[in-house]
Amino acid sequence: MARFVMLALVAALALPAMGCYHNRIVTSPDYNPSKVTPDAEELRIHILGLFPVNSPVNLEATCPNGAGVLESRMLFDIRLATFSQTRVYCNTVAADAGADSADTLAALKN
Questions:
Q1: Whose CA is closest to 32, among 98, 89, 105, 110?
Q2: What digits encode the pLDDT tens for the residues 53-88?
Q3: Chain centroid to CA 30: how far?
Q4: In terms of Cα–Cα distance, which of 37, 20, 38, 36 is closest to 82?
Q5: In Å, how far are 28, 49, 65, 86 from 97, measured between CA atoms?
Q6: Where is the signal peptide (predicted)?
Q7: What is the DSSP string of the chain?
Q8: Is 84 in contact with 47 (CB distance < 8 Å)?
């Protein structure tokens, strides 16, 4: 019985310490928001929430036309190891940053 009480106490203390979050970062205004299937999906593991076990996602290789949306979601956090999921949604057309900057410069000169 004492063992059960100790396990219940540990679980009661651990559950409030856990949290979850979902970040969605839109990096391109031209991104199609109706796209629901990610182009890359990866499970991420961090030790003590700070030190990643796996390498970062290579966005240049994954999305040659640029990333439209980056998503990060915490799946499980036990303080020793944090498990999260990263999803990358690529643009279908390359963004033309040169056109915007040329228009902006011309507007500033006038």
A1: 89
A2: 888 888 888 888 888 888 888 877 776 888 888 899
A3: 19
A4: 20
A5: 11, 35, 12, 26
A6: 1-19
A7: -HHHHHHHHHHHHHHHH----EEEEE--TT--TT--S-SEEEEEEEETTTEESSPPP-HHHH-TT-EEEEEEEEEEE-SSEEEEEEEEEE-SS---HHHHHHHHHHHHH-
A8: no
Mean pLDDT of the chain: 75
> Pick from 43, 42, 34: which is nearest to 62 by CA?
42
95/31 Cα distance (integer angstroms):
10
